[in-house]
Write a structure and sequence with these properties.
This protein is α/β, with parallel strands linked by helices and 335 residues long. Helices cover 28% and strands 20% of the residues. The chain has two domains: 201 residues, Rossmann fold (3-Layer(aba) Sandwich); 113 residues, Rossmann fold (3-Layer(aba) Sandwich), CATH 3.40.50.40. The N terminus is likely disordered. Bound molecules: succinic acid.
C-alpha cells in the first residue's frame, strides 16, 4: 500500500468500479460500454485539480459493474473504511461506485461506519471515455466535500451532479440523465460547486457511530418481493423454502399487498420469517397499519425507506439479533 502523505487534508479514494470507471470504444457512446475497467490511478490522473484539494491515497477495492455488488464486498468495504478512518493520518474517504446500487451501499455504510469523519460516495452516468464525461467533476466535488470540516458527523454522503445527499434518502431516479439522483420529498442536504461546499440541512436520524450495527460477518438472507396485479405466491414460497430470514415487500401504494401474497406472508410469518412492508411508488412513506394490518400479520412498516434500503436495514437488524416484530418496527422508526 502506498503511504498516505502527511499534509492536510488526507483523503483515501477507494475505487469499486462503475460507469465512472467505464470505457467505450467510441467517445460518442454513453450506453453499451463496459463498466468498472479503468483503474483508480487513471481516474485520479484525469483530475489534476485534485492535488490542490487534498493529499490522495488511492486503493482499488474492486472493479465491478455495481449491478454485481455482493454482500461479501459490502463487508470488505465497510471494514476497510473503518480501518482507514481509525488512522490519525486519514481525514476522510471517497468511494467511487456504480450508480445502479450506489444507494444500497451508501445506506449500508451509513449504518455501519464507526467514525464521524466524512465518507462520500460518487459515481457517473457517462463512461470515462465519453464526450462530457461527468465522472471527473463528480470525483473532484466528492473529494472537496470529504475534505471539509462541515462534512463531519453528517453520516455517509453522496456527492453527485453538484448536489450533496444523505445516504439514507438518496435514490437513483433516471436511467440516463446526469442528474440521476434525488432525495424524494426531503431534497438534497446541500451543494458543492467550484470548491465551495454548503450544507442547508442535516439528516436527523441516527447513523454511523450512533447505531448498534456492524458489517462483521455474513448477513442473514433477506429477499424482496413485488406486489402487482395477478401476483402469485410462488416467489414467497420459494424464498421461505430456501430458508430466508426476512422478506421485504415492495407493495403497491401505501405498502398494500395483493391478497394472494398476504396469505403467503402470513404462512411465512408462521415459519419465523420477518416481514417488512415498503412501497414500489418511489416517494412518500408507508404507514403502519395503513394498508394492511401489521398488528395481525406481525409485519413491519418500512416508513420512508424504499425496498432496497429496507432490505439493508432488515439484514443488519436481524444480524444484531433484533428479531421480534415490535423491535424491528422500533428499528425502522429509528434509523
Ligand atoms: C454500475 O452501476 O456499475 C453501472 C452503471 C453506472 O455506474 O451508471
Amino acid at each position: 500500500m502506498e503511504p498516505i502523505k502527511t499534509s492536510n487534508p488526507r483523503i483515501a479514494v477507494l475505487a469499486t468500479g462503475g460507469t465512472i470507471a467505464g470505457q467505450a470504444g467510441d467517445a460518442s457512446r454513453t450506453a453499451g460500454y463496459k463498466a468498472g475497467v479503468v483503474g483508480v490511478d487513471k481516474l485520479l490522473e484525469a483530475v489534476p485539480a485534485l492535488s490542490q484539494v487534498a493529499q490522495i491515497h488511492a486503493e482499488q477495492i474492486a472493479s465491478i459493474d455495481s449491478k454485481d455488488m455482493s454482500i461479501a464486498l459490502w463487508i470488505a468495504l465497510s471494514q476497510r473504511i473503518n480501518a482507514l478512518l481509525a488512522q490519525d493520518d486519514v481525514d476522510g474517504i471517497v468511494v467511487t461506485h456504480g450508480t445502479d446500487t450506489l444507494e444500497e451501499t451508501a445506506y449500508l455504510l451509513h449504518l455501519t461506519v464507526k467514525s464521524d469523519k466524512p465518507v462520500v460516495l460518487t459515481a457517473a452516468m457517462r463512461p470515462s471515455t465519453a464526450l462530457s464525461a461527468d465522472g471527473p467533476l463528480n470525483l473532484l466535488n466528492a473529494v472537496t466535500v470529504a475534505a471539509q470540516k462541515s462534512a463531519w458527523k453528517q453520516g455517509v454522503l453522496v456527492a453527485f451532479n453538484n448536489q450533496i445527499h444523505s445516504a439514507r434518502d438518496v435514490t437513483k431516479t433516471s436511467t440516463y440523465a446526469v442528474d440521476a439522483f434525488r432525495s424524494p420529498e426531503v431534497g438534497a442536504l446541500g451543494w458543492v460547486q467550484d470548491g465551495r461546499v454548503e450544507f442547508q440541512r442535516a439528516a436527523v436520524r441516527p447513523h454511523t457511530t450512533r447505531t448498534p450495527f456492524d458489517a462483521q460477518g455474513a448477513l442473514p438472507a433477506v429477499e424482496i418481493v413485488t406486489s402487482y396485479a395477478g401476483a402469485s405466491r410462488a416467489a414467497i414460497d420459494a424464498f421461505v423454502a430456501a430458508g430466508v430470514k426476512g422478506i421485504v415487500i415492495a407493495g403497491t401504494g401505501n405498502g398494500s399487498v395483493h391478497a394472494t401474497l398476504q396469505q403467503a406472508l402470513a404462512d411465512a410469518r408462521k415459519q419465523g420469517v420477518a416481514v417488512v412492508r415498503s412501497s414500489r411508488v418511489g416517494s412518500g412513506h408507508v404507514m403502519r397499519n395503513g394498508a394492511a394490518s401489521d398488528d395481525a400479520l406481525g409485519s413491519v412498516s418500512a416508513g420512508t425507506l424504499n425496498p432496497y434500503k429496507a432490505r439493508v436495514l432488515l439484514m443488519l437488524a436481524l444480524a444484531a439479533n433484533i428479531t421480534n416484530p415490535a423491535a424491528i418496527q422500533q428499528t425502522f422508526d429509528t434509523y
